[in-house]
Amino acid sequence: MKFINSNQILLAAAFLPLWGYAQETKLDSIQEVMVHANRLQIPFSKDNRNVEILSAEQIKQLPVKNLNEVLGFLNGVDLRQRGPFGAQADVSIDGGSFEQTLILVNGAKVSDSQTAHHSLNLPIPLDAIERIEVLRGAAARIYGINALTGAINIITKTVNKTSIQANVYTGSPFKNRDEEDKDGIYYHAGTQVGAGWFKEKHQHQFFYNKEKSNGQRYNTASQNDKIFYQGNLAIDDHNEMEWLGSYMYNRFGANGFYAAPGDRESEEIVETVFASLGSKHQLSERFYLSPRITNRYNEDDYRYMRQNLAVGRSQHYTNAFSIELNSRYQTTFGDFGLGLESRLDRIASSNMGDHNRNNHGAYAEFRTEEIKNMSVNVGAYINYNTQYGWQVYPGIDLGYSITPKWKLVFNTGTSQRIPSFTDLYLNQRPGNIGNPDLFSEDAWQTEGAIKFQSTNFIAHGGYFYRNIRNFIDWIKTDVNDPYQPFNIGKNKVHGINTNFLYTFQADDIRYRVNLGYNYLHASLVQTEDVISKYSLENLKHQAKLLFMANNSVWNASIANRFNQRISDKSYFLTDIRIGYNFPSLSIYTDAQNIFDVTYIETSAIPMPGRWYSLGVFYRL
């Protein structure tokens, strides 16, 4: 473990004397945000789950350039990048695997059925994000399959003014690339243009983003293009429509990403198209209906030897078409939620073959506050999968208000993850092979917590226990064998999580402090003397301290993160952003990993050291 030095402690505490000037101010409307994690539209302040919300204002002040980097600042979320700046990353929640976390955009599932390695292939610009919601714990009752350890829901903005904007940024450590000094300085650069069109009845927004990096190491250069469009139409006071379309092209050198050390010359090209069309209807004073259709198409071209495409090349074409119908009915004694959904998954692959499977689900949920000082959410999700048959996922959430500010919550429920096509059918010798005889993973999780909410302060502290049966891990018994997935036993996790958000104002300056700590104790019952690909790298300790200050002219933030994994690898990172605003122009500069810490998030791939960035944002 690398210990924190005195400079890091001083820097983290640099702004603390300003606390003495705090005055009463109204917290962001976060407490009354309608959490999309629940189809019954519950305000954040009344939710009985462990939900964390990161608002657009907070995202704007963080020292980040893309969605992947933002996720690394969320409590209990483990972001493991194989390359910075969106090259490739996996995300998991509370010690689960990257396959056990469900990713959504505005409530629509975008997780990849080929492999969750592509679930974050999302072309959503930070300027289009309203907030990010993280629902931790078993979420099958709410979202159905594959939300085994939780879900991350990205909520996009609705345009409120007509505008044109441009954002240009670049960064470098001002050091030569590792292993290739002759290729000069390592750099990253990007540009983004966008426009919003606002009319009383309809609104539209469009973004195009291009990024490029020459790679920190040999064969890790990357480039990506992102297109994002969203529209809204208010038909009348009781009916509205919304639609979304996006495209992402991502090409990167994959040296050491999946099958080190033999994949030194590997390259990967991933293209993703996602579209959704939905509507909301108030059919009576108490009855609401929301249908939606979505389609996600993904092409993955993995080239084990980029100079010789006849050796080890894998091409995968997947498509997921979904249709869903959600409804809500309000009564004097509580609210009912009912819904149906179907998802049709298809894959055509050069080394997996052609496969398809269909998934159909139905849910029922009831919420009431008619019991004194209590709120109750109870429901179940019934699922039928053409490959794994029928399953039922019940759950219940309870909340008891001790005082108007203090609340006890308890929830318990079940969840499942169906193996991906890669788990089942991959044939990529000598690195990895699938296992068509896998069972699905099943989990049961219970959590108890205490919450505090006031005008300026939100706090959460809780304990959870999760038990996963038929846990899937990629293992091998000999270093010369390929990795293959097996249902190796039970995965049990005890966890403690805390999060504190304090907001205050002094004169015209607004301050925000966010502190969080998570502890996980995991045990895995499996065959001894096996080499694991994923499970031995889970986080054990995770802590964050974010401090932000801003007024109408400038903003500043300092972000500290500490991660320690079960393997005893640990690192402490400190990032800083300073920005200055002119009437139509903003200039910002970041210093990331300012103490030049050497660290690894996954495999044996070193992440960048100290990094400096400069950006200019123009809005008309």
TrEMBL record:
Membrane-protein topology: Multi-pass membrane protein
The keyword Kinase is annotated on this UniProt entry: no
Boundaries of every TonB-dependent receptor plug domain copy: 49-151
Single GO MF descriptor: siderophore uptake transmembrane transporter activity
PROSITE patterns xref list: TONB_DEPENDENT_REC_3 (PS52016)
Principal subcellular localization: membrane
The TonB-dependent receptor-like beta-barrel domain, residue ranges: 228-594
GO cellular component, one term: cell outer membrane
SUPFAM superfamilies listed in its UniProt record: Porins (SSF56935)
UniProt xrefs under InterPro entries: Beta-barrel_TonB, Beta-barrel_TonB_sf, Plug_dom, Plug_dom_sf, TonB-dep_rcpt-like
Pfam families noted in UniProt: Plug, TonB_dep_Rec_b-barrel
GO biological process: siderophore transmembrane transport
Domain of life of the native organism: Bacteria
Lineage of producing organism: Bacteria, Pseudomonadati, Bacteroidota, Sphingobacteriia, Sphingobacteriales
Location in or out of the cell: Cell outer membrane
Alphabetically ordered keywords of this record: Cell outer membrane, Membrane, Receptor, Signal, TonB box, Transmembrane, Transmembrane beta strand, Transport
The name this protein goes by in its record: TonB-dependent receptor
